[in-house]
């Protein structure tokens, strides 16, 4: 297949790399054979496929890392992973991942100095180089296209000046607003999922505004 040919081409550039083409939803024997030969499994599959790989890792006692949000299906495997003596770490990417680290660095620094967080606003997005953003969305799929479109149709929650704002599914793109903190770039942002849970997770219950948002070039939402 074209995918396998591309994988072979990439693998030729790096030693100790063996490309394998398999369907994790159908080829359970092949997946088990691959997983049991590894020390650590890094899953960059669409998020709904992570539990399949995780169950296989639990069976063979192999540690696992993903860059996706920890879904309820993955959280439900916590006790089984503990019993198997393995570690499964989610949200180890850019967003979620590096954004968490940067957020906690600043938040902890403020708290250590006796301060309080009155407002927490964080935007993150994978933006293509301007000269390569010539399509209608002004965007390039750097992760699951299905995931990008699914998120664009989902709802969101955040806190603004002490008031909980809920954006219903299907209305997220209508909530996009210009973002002007990077001079020279025409950007817009919209809420990303449920920001309310991060008041407790980040330890900023005192904050009156808590918003995690997605960053795009201006015109993405309208398109």
Automatic annotation (TrEMBL):
- Molecular function terms, GO-annotated: saccharopine dehydrogenase activity
Cellular component terms per the entry's GO annotation: cytoplasm
Residues of the Saccharopine dehydrogenase NADP binding domain: 4-89
Kindly list the biological process annotations in GO that this record carries.
lysine biosynthetic process via aminoadipic acid
Do you know which Pfam families this protein is assigned to? Sacchrp_dh_C (PF16653), Sacchrp_dh_NADP (PF03435)
Q: Which domain of life is it from?
A: Eukaryota
Q: Where is the Saccharopine dehydrogenase-like C-terminal domain?
A: 93-222
Keywords from the named record: NADP, Oxidoreductase
Enumerate the InterPro entries for this protein: AASS, NAD(P)-bd_dom_sf, Sacchrp_dh-like_C, Sacchrp_dh_NADP-bd
What is the official name of this protein in its record?
Saccharopine dehydrogenase
From which organism does this entry originate? Notodromas monacha
């Amino acid at each position: 297949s074209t995918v396998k040919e591309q994988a072979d081409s990439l693998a030729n550039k790096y030693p100790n790399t063996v490309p394998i083409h398999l369907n994790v939803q159908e080829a359970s024997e092949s997946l088990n054979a691959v997983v049991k030969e590894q020390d650590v499994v890094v899953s960059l599959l669409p998020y709904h496929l992570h539990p399949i790989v995780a169950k296989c890792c639990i069976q063979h006692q192999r540690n696992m890392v993903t860059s996706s949000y920890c879904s309820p299906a993955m959280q439900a495997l916590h006790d089984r992973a503990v019993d198997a003596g393995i570690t499964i770490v989610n949200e180890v990417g850019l967003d979620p991942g590096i954004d968490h680290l940067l957020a906690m660095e600043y938040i902890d620094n403020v708290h250590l100095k006796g301060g309080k967080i009155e407002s927490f606003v964080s935007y993150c997005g994978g933006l293509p180089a301007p000269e390569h953003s010539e399509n209608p969305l002004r965007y390039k799929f750097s992760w699951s296209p299905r995931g990008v479109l699914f998120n664009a149709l989902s709802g969101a929650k955040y806190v603004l000046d002490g008031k909980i704002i809920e954006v219903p599914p299907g209305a997220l793109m209508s909530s996009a607003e210009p973002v002007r903190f990077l001079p020279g770039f025409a950007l817009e942002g919209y809420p990303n999922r449920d920001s309310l849970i991060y008041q407790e997770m980040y330890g900023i219950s005192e904050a009156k505004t808590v918003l995690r948002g997605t960053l795009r070039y201006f015109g993405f939402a309208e398109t």
